């Protein structure tokens, strides 16, 4: 795992996008997704005429029709007709963007393309997976850190991910990284005692938390010799105040997650997400403008996630480190 930087953002569930236009936001910019025939398209969701949202129009004859004056744009963004104009249609276009579809998700890469869409550590045949969608008033940095942060679970998720006892174990955490990614590997922790862990994890020995550009926060839980469970969050900053994520829960079909466990797991997982949502929003609303948070030795991933989000190589890429902590 040397270079994981990618510019692909997961923006929608495949099944949510049909021939009706579908608007998504990414970093404050609107995009519209639509299908015509077998093709999937992504355009900037703004008609160049009077800036009406194309997503409020309809798809007709392989083109998207603006709801205001009916200009039609093909999948490449080119204007194909202007109702009422008897002369030739002038050369006008809306920006079109690279779009891909895999594993039930639609990815876009506005601007320069780099790398591949991230499929998740467990995907493809032999894997069972389930997706949840979530939106929270926060920043991508805070949400990614929250997902990967092992030190909040005792408090935010007491009883669910952790047991009610205050027992902690000494854990060795190894932090490594590279261009566009960072990960922390936790060794020495016996199986967690909370409800979710009991249900799913089996004999856990090692777990890994990882961030991959541009917005992947992923956890993997190892059994004796393989990953028993992974959760891959595809996060994106919709606008200054909101982060939307798709959380893919995955496990091996045989003996691992299984369909029944997956069904039981989803509601518990939603409870955990709501607990996180509540604390993230409360912290966000309580933050004075411009205030900088205290970063402590236990916050092993945050500085790297910050660098990666700025497009820089994290320092840990050239200086990996270990720390023993009590979890
Ligand atoms: S605003 Fe789109 S056609 Fe006029
Ligand atoms: Fe959490």
UniProtKB/TrEMBL annotation:
Alphabetical list of Pfam families matching this protein: Rieske, VanA_C
Domain of life: Bacteria
Residue stretches making up the Rieske domain: 8-108
Entry-linked PANTHER family: CHOLESTEROL 7-DESATURASE NVD (PTHR21266:SF32), IRON-SULFUR DOMAIN CONTAINING PROTEIN (PTHR21266)
Record's keyword annotation contains ATP-binding: no
Segments traversing the membrane: none
Cellular location(s): Membrane
UniProt feature coiled coil, ranges: none
GO CC annotations, alphabetized: cytoplasm; membrane
Name this protein carries in UniProt: Rieske 2Fe-2S domain-containing protein
SUPFAM superfamilies referenced in this protein's UniProt entry, alphabetically: Bet v1-like (SSF55961), ISP domain (SSF50022)
Keywords from the UniProt entry: 2Fe-2S, Iron, Iron-sulfur, Membrane, Metal-binding, Oxidoreductase, Transmembrane, Transmembrane helix
Record PROSITE patterns: RIESKE
InterPro entries: Cholesterol_7-desaturase (IPR050584), Rieske_2Fe-2S (IPR017941), Rieske_2Fe-2S_sf (IPR036922), VanA_C_cat (IPR044043)
């Amino acid at each position: 795992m040397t270079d994981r930087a990618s510019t692909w953002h997961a923006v929608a569930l495949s099944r949510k996008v049909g021939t009706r236009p579908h608007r998504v936001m990414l970093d404050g910019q609107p995009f519209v997704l639509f299908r015509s025939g077998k093709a999937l398209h992504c355009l900037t969701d703004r008609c160049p005429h009077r800036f009406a949202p194309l997503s409020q129009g309809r798809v007709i004859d392989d083109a998207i029709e603006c709801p205001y004056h009916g200009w039609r744009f093909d999948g490449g963004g080119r204007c194909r007709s202007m109702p009422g104009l008897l002369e030739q249609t002038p050369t006008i276009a809306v920006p079109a963007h690279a779009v891909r579809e895999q594993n039930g998700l639609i990815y876009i890469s506005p601007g320069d393309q780099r790398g591949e869409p991230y499929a998740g550590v467990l995907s493809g045949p032999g894997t069972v997976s389930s997706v949840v969608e979530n939106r929270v008033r926060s920043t991508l940095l805070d949400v990614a850190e929250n997902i990967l942060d092992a030190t909040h679970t005792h408090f935010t998720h007491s009883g669910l991910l952790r047991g009610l006892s205050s027992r902690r174990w000494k854990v060795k955490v190894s932090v490594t990284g590279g261009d566009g990614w960072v990960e922390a590997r936790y060794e020495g922790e016996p199986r967690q005692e909370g409800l979710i862990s009991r249900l799913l994890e089996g004999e856990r020995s090692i777990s890994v938390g990882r961030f991959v550009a541009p917005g992947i926060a992923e956890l993997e839980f190892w059994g004796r010799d393989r990953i028993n469970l992974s959760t891959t969050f595809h996060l994106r900053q919709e606008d200054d105040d909101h982060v939307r994520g798709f959380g893919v829960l995955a496990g091996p079909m045989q003996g691992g997650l299984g369909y029944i466990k997956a069904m039981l797991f989803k509601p518990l997982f939603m409870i955990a997400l709501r607990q996180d949502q509540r604390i993230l929003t409360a912290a966000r609303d309580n933050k004075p403008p411009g205030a900088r948070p205290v970063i402590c030795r236990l916050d092993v991933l945050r500085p790297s996630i910050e660098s990666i989000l700025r497009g820089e190589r994290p320092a840990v890429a050239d200086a990996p480190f270990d720390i023993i902590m009590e979890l």
